[in-house]
Amino acid sequence: MARYTCSFAVAISLEELQSSLGELLRGCHFDVIYNTGDYLMARETPGEVSFAKLVTVEALIDRTKATADNVQVNLVIKNEELPLQVDNHCRLVSDRVQNAISAHERWQLLERVAT
């Protein structure tokens, strides 16, 4: 199973982050399938790759460290594909999501840690 994690902090209010995170993922060709406010799960839109390569994003918004204008989010980006190559589909999608986070016009990225 391919699995990539990313943690980032953005200068935005908690309420604004919750709505714009779903928009950001939809812009990266994901369908939000579960959203509780603190936790969001999205699956890549089918059709481009085989079912085993479809990527799932799980986002956990850390309310314990959130301030009025600073929120931390932890992402797990994964699929069922074995990561036999460095440039596998999950890695490429992970890079695309992280680049979208960095370039988002309504967010000011304060910190990002990817593994």
Structure commentary:
The protein has 115 residues and is α+β, with helices and mostly antiparallel strands. The chain has a single domain (2-114), classed as Kinase associated domain 1, KA1 (TATA-Binding Protein, 2-Layer Sandwich). The protein is 25% helix and 44% strand. It has helices at 14-27, 89-103, and strands at residues 2-11, 30-35, 39-44, 56-67, 70-79, 108-114. The relative contact order is 0.30. The model has no long low-confidence stretch (mean pLDDT 88).
What does the radius of gyration come to? Answer: 14 Å
CATH superfamily grouping: Kinase associated domain 1, KA1
- What are the segments in which pLDDT stays under 50 over at least 5 consecutive residues? none
The order of strands across the largest sheet is: 2-3-4-5-1-6
Describe the largest sheet. 6 strands, antiparallel
- Top CATH class: Alpha Beta
Shape type? globular
Strand content: 35-45%
The CATH architecture classification is 2-Layer Sandwich
What structural category do the secondary elements indicate? alpha+beta
Overall domain count: 1
Number of strands: 6
Helix amount, in percent?
A: 25-40%
Which fold does the CATH topology refer to?
TATA-Binding Protein
Count of DSSP-assigned helices: 2
What value does the average pLDDT take? 88
Elements, N to C (H/E) = EHEEEEHE
